[in-house]
């Protein structure tokens, strides 16, 4: 049995930021980045369920073996999912040209014995997972974490387009914790202002809502409380996967029994180390993680939300 399972297709991307450019396609994707982060932090028994094309299958299996994560390929696809990400400015705005899209993963494709894994991270990248997948894990008692990004994206004329998909909110309702970014929160809630958007998503879904705001930090809404978490100020090399790493870290520290506030401080600290590196390729030094997390903890604010009317 596994401790945690991440669902979502692995991705091989080309990344171009103002500061760095990948030579060829590099491994990324929400499920992969979150799972590798948890493994790096010391969690054992992690599996990733996804689909990949023949072209990258061997490379993917080797990369996973090196990182002690078990890959479960449910369908061998014609193509491997991948994007050419071009960052248009210094604040993370990017254009995603589609290089390929693998098959989808329905709840019926999931190995049934894995549905009772204690922790499930649902991290699709582009439409490969629907609300049936978190629902299948939730029914069997897993604690379900969702990054809704892949439910809010589709391909239009060869590039990724974001759209308001009602299935994304349905998937949030089937999850215990959800992590949209600023744009995804707007699409889920119809509200521009981040705190109001997080409150609306939390109240509509019942899920703890961790809304990430890149270099502006994150806001976590649970019950009648909002935890305002700063980002650790650092230099940016590549923001790709910052949200996935934040999610993987949050999962790990909550699983270790930390409070939401303390787990969020570590998630923000580790994501700040990620943005100094290309894609998911970074290493963690305990002393540095502790130093940044302690800096963040000292600056977290907790707001009480008083219901009116
Ligand atoms: N420039 C930055 N400096 C410091 N921390 C950052 C920076 N960018 C992101 N982070 C940290 O990473 C977290 C997640 O970032 P972001 O909101 O960009 O996620 P995302 O858009 O989901 O990313 P992706 O989809 O590429 O994984 C932020 O809440 C913050 O803690
Ligand atoms: Mg994201």
Task: Describe this entry's structure for a reader.
By secondary structure, the chain is an alpha/beta fold. It has a single domain (4-211, 235-260), classed as Ribokinase (UDP-N-acetylmuramoyl-L-alanine:D-glutamate ligase, 3-Layer(aba) Sandwich), CATH 3.40.1190.20. Helix content is 33%, strand content 26%. The chain has nine helices and 16 strands. It has helices at residues 30-40, 54-66, 132-139, 166-173, 182-189, 194-205, 242-255, 260-274, 286-297; strands at residues 4-7, 11-16, 26-28, 46-53, 70-77, 82-87, 94-100, 119-122, 143-146, 153-156, 159-162, 177-178, 208-212, 218-222, 225-229, 301-304. The strands form three sheets. Strands 5-4-1-8-9-12-13-14-15-16 form a ten-stranded mixed sheet, with helices on both faces. Strands 3-2-6-7 form a four-stranded mixed sheet. A two-stranded antiparallel sheet has the order 10-11. Strand 6 and strand 7 form a beta hairpin. Helix 8 (260-274) packs across helix 9 (286-297). The radius of gyration is 18 Å and the shape is globular. The protein starts with a strand and ends in a 5-residue tail after the last strand. The structure holds adenosine-5'-triphosphate (ATP) and magnesium ion. Magnesium ion binds next to loops. Magnesium ion (MG) binds at residues 147, 149, 181, 243.
